Input
Amino acid sequence: MAKSGAGWLVAGACSLAMLGCTGSSARGPASPIHDHWLSGYVLGIWGKSELDVRDDCPNTGAASVRVGATWATLAVSVVTLGIYTPREVRVRCRVPR
Output
């Protein structure tokens, strides 16, 4: 009985190991990513920042835009006691076909 349990364990480990190789080559060419910081002041209440994604992706357009806090922007906010509170914008361009 112990042998069949060990066999299932080995089979499961082999299956998991093979799954690690599946996703990396299916994506194709990498799309360019552009990172920007948008300024904000007094905990983000004041300050208006604009970003035109057409400057980053003039020919293909943006595939995705993500706006949020990162560890670096949070650290800057803490160090400045919330006076300067930037946000990071990550623009991923579409892959030209």
User: Anything to note?
Assistant: DSSP finds three helices and three strands in the chain. Residues 12 and 22 are 16 Å apart (CA to CA). Confidence is low (pLDDT under 50) at residues 16-26. The radius of gyration is 22 Å.
